[in-house]
Amino acid sequence: MARPLRITYPGAFYHVTARGNEQKAVFKSKSDRIKFLEYLESATVRYNAVIHAYCLMDNHYHLLLETPSGNLPQIMRHINGAYTTYFNIRRARSGHLFQGRYKGILVEKDAYAKELSRYIHLNPVRADMVKKPEEHPWCSYGAYVGKMKAPDWLHRDFILAYFGKNTARAQKRYRDFVEALLGREYESPIAAATGASVLGSNGFVTHIKDCYLCSEDKSRDVPALKQIFAGIALETVIDLVAKSFGDNQAHQRNAGIYLCRQYTGEKLATIGRQFGISDAAVSQACKRFKARIDLDRKLGKQITAIERKLSKVET
C-alpha cells in the first residue's frame, strides 16, 4: 500500500494506531500488556511524549498523544521497536509483529481531542469485549473516571478540563459524555480526516498545508498529499477504478467507494448519493474493503496500482 503521510512539528497532536501483522494478536498475556505500558512510560521519559489516552485491544492499539519535541517517528520507533523485540524474544520468534507502518493522523486537538478520547475508550465496547468501557482494564478510561489509579505518565488534565475545573465533577461529566453513546451507532471521528492524514477544520488543514507542506510536496508519491492540496473528482476515481477492474462489478463498486473516500475530499453523504447508499453505509463499506485488501495480497496490489495513478492526476 502507499506510504503514509508524516507531518511533524513541535506540539503536534495525533491519533495513532498499529495493527498486528495479518490481523494476529500482538497482546497475548497480561505480561505483554504490562510491558507495552512500560514502553509508553519510557517514551514519555526519553522522547518527551505526552500520552493523553490509550487502549490496548488484542490485535491492535490506539493512542492519543502529543509531541512537544516534534518527534513522532522517534517515539513510535521506540514503542513499536522495543515491544517487537520483547515479543519476539519472549516467544522465540523473528520478523515483523505489526502490519506495515503505524497510522498517525494529525489532529486539531481543540476541536477533536475529547471526541477522539471517547472513540478510543469505547473501542472495547464496539468490539463486544465488554459492556462498559470501565470493564476493560487495559485502557485509560478507568483513570479518567476515577475507577483506577492513573499512571504518572498519563495526562488527563487537558481533556478533563473540557468538563469542568473540579476533578470529581469533570470525571462525572466525562463518564456521561462517553456513556451517552453506549448502544448507539455513531460515525468514527477518524472518517472526517482529510487524506486519511489530517483531522481538523478547513482552516486547520490550510494552516498545515501552508506552514508544513510546500507545493513541491505534491509531486511526492504520497497519495494523501493530493487530497490535502486539492481533491480529485469523483468521476475521475470511478472511471479509473472501472478501467482497472474490468467486468468485476463487486470490486468496481467497493473499490470505488473506498478510493472516493480516500482521495476526493467529498463528504460521506455526497459519496453515498453517487453510489445510492447512506453516508453510514459508505463508512461501513470502507471499513470492510480495507479489511479485505489487508488480507488479499493480489487485491492490495491492484489498489496500490490505482493509488499510484491517482497520485499523478492533476487537480
Task: Characterise this structure.
With 315 residues, this protein is of the alpha+beta class. The chain has 2 domains: 12-189, Alpha-Beta Plaits; 232-315, Chromosomal Replication Initiator Protein Dnaa, Chain: A (Orthogonal Bundle). 50% of the residues lie in helices and 10% in strands. The chain contains 14 helices and 5 strands. The protein has a 5-stranded mixed sheet with strand order 2-3-1-4-5, with helices on both faces. Strand 2 (50-56) and strand 3 form a beta hairpin. Helix 10 runs antiparallel to helix 11 and helix 11 (249-263) packs across helix 13 (279-295). The longest helix is centred in the first third of the chain and has 19 residues, at 72-90.
Summarize the structure.
The protein is 50% helix and 10% strand.
CATH architecture of the largest domain: 2-Layer Sandwich
Helix/strand-derived class? alpha+beta
The CATH superfamily of the largest domain is identified as Transposase IS200-like
Q: What would the CATH topology of the largest domain be? A: Alpha-Beta Plaits
Proportion in helices = 40-55%
Instruction: Provide mean pLDDT, rounded.
Output: 88
Number of domains: 2
Report the CATH C-level class of the largest domain. Answer: Alpha Beta
- Gap between N and C termini: 22 Å
Summarize the helix and strand pattern as letters: EHEEHEHHHHHEHHHHHHH
Record the strand order, biggest sheet.
2-3-1-4-5
Q: Shape, please?
A: globular
